[in-house]
Specification:
The radius of gyration is 14 Å and the shape is globular. It has one domain (4-21, 30-72). The termini are far apart. It has 82 residues and is mainly α. It has four helices and no strands. Helix 3 runs antiparallel to helix 4 (59-72). It has helices spanning 4-18, 21-26, 33-52, 59-72. The longest helix is centred in the middle third of the chain and has 20 residues, at 33-52.
Length: 82
C-alpha cells in the first residue's frame, strides 16, 4: 500500500477541521499559513510512521509522538479529574 490513501484521509480530516468552529480560534490568520504548517506537520509525522513501521527503531515511536503532539496543539486534552 502506498502512503497516498493515508495522506488523503489526513487531508480530508484536516479540511473538515478547517471548515469547523475550531478553525476560528486555532488558526486565526487569514492567509492560513499556520493551518498549512499544522497540516504539513501531521503529514510528515504520518509519513515517518509509515516509512519505519516495520523497523526496529525509535523513529516510529517518535513519529507517533509528533503526530499526537501536533493534534494536541489544537485539540487541548481535558484535564483529568483529580
Amino acid at each position: 500500500m502506498s502512503i497516498g490513501p493515508l495522506n488523503e484521509i489526513l487531508v480530508s480530516i484536516t479540511n473538515i477541521i478547517l471548515k469547523s468552529d475550531v478553525n476560528a480560534t486555532a488558526f486565526p490568520d487569514i492567509d492560513l499559513t499556520d493551518f498549512d504548517r499544522w497540516q504539513d506537520d501531521l503529514l510528515q509525522s504520518a509519513r515517518q510512521v509509515y516509512d519505519h513501521w516495520h523497523e526496529d527503531n525509535d523513529l516510529t515511536e517518535a513519529g507517533l509522538n509528533q503526530f499526537e503532539a501536533t493534534f494536541s496543539s489544537i485539540f487541548t486534552p481535558k484535564e483529568k479529574a483529580q
